[in-house]
């Protein structure tokens, strides 16, 4: 019979496996990390029922490559610099983060990293953002 080493380091049998699986089933991952036995609190713009209401319908995520190259990380555009470009066009930025383009890239000095700067803006400002080289994020 196979034995399982639990998280606490004790060797357990089939009963321990059942307990471990039951324990894991009560975990959930929310925007603020792992929570135990309850749903994570709603984030800004999200109701307690889990839907994003009209706020999300009014907003869209846009992104553009940061220009970063392998072995030359100082060449990449910062999230803050991209937000400043959007704000200079009168576009309000609600959230921002680094992301990847979802493609595989060669790991060689001088090759593109595929990193992007991603921003949440009003849907009404999408055309202005496209004029700056942004595209709707996937």
What's the structural blueprint in terms of helices and strands?
Layout: E1 4-5, E2 11-12, H1 14-25, E3 27-30, E4 33-36, H2 53-57, E5 59-65, H3 79-88, E6 95-100, E7 115-122, H4 126-131, E8 135-136
Antiparallel strand pairs: 1-2, 3-4, 5-7, 5-8, 6-7
Short description, anyone?
This protein has 138 residues and is α+β, with helices and mostly antiparallel strands. It is 24% helix and 25% strand.
Helix tally equals 4
For this structure, what is the CATH class of the largest domain?
Alpha Beta
Kindly state the number of beta strands.
8
Mean pLDDT metric: 75
The name of the CATH topology of the largest domain is Alpha-Beta Plaits
H-E string = EEHEEHEHEEHE
| Parts with pLDDT < 50 across at least 5 consecutive residues | 3-11, 15-50
- State the strand order across the main sheet: 6-7-5-8
Main beta sheet strand tally, sense and closure: 4 strands, antiparallel
How much of the sequence lies in strands comes to 25-35%
Instruction: State the shape.
Output: elongated
Radius of gyration: 22 Å
Assign the structural class, choosing from mainly alpha, mainly beta, alpha/beta, alpha+beta, or little secondary structure. alpha+beta
The CATH architecture designation of the largest domain is 2-Layer Sandwich
List keywords for this structure.
138 residues; alpha+beta; Alpha-Beta Plaits; 2 domains; four-stranded antiparallel beta sheet; two-stranded antiparallel ribbon; 4 helices; 8 strands; 25% strand; disordered N terminus
Question: What does this protein structure show overall?
Answer:
By secondary structure, the protein is an alpha+beta fold. The protein has 2 domains: 4-36, no CATH class; 54-136, Alpha-Beta Plaits (2-Layer Sandwich), CATH 3.30.70. Helices cover 24% and strands 25% of the residues. The protein is built from 4 helices and 8 strands; from the N terminus they run ββαββαβαββαβ. It has helices at 14-25, 53-57, 79-88, 126-131; strands at residues 4-5, 11-12, 27-30, 33-36, 59-65, 95-100, 115-122, 135-136. The strands form 3 sheets. The protein has a 4-stranded antiparallel beta sheet with strand order 6-7-5-8. A two-stranded antiparallel ribbon has the order 1-2. A two-stranded antiparallel ribbon has the order 3-4. Strand 3 (27-30) and strand 4 (33-36) form a beta hairpin. The longest helix is centred in the N-terminal third of the chain and has 12 residues, at 14-25. It is elongated.
């Amino acid at each position: 019979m196979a034995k399982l080493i639990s998280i606490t380091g004790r060797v357990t049998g089939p009963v321990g496996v059942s307990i471990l699986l039951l324990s894991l089933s009560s975990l959930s991952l929310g925007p603020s990390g792992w929570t135990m036995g309850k749903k994570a609190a709603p984030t800004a713009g999200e109701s307690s029922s889990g839907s994003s209401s009209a706020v999300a319908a009014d907003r869209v995520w846009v992104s553009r490559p940061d220009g970063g190259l392998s072995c030359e990380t100082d060449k990449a555009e910062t999230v803050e610099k991209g937000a400043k470009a959007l704000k200079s066009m009168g576009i309000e930025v609600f959230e921002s983060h680094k992301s990847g383009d979802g493609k595989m890239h060669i790991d060689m000095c001088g090759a593109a990293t595929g990193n992007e700067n991603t921003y949440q803006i009003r849907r009404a400002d999408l055309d202005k953002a496209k004029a700056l080289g942004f595209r709707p994020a996937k």
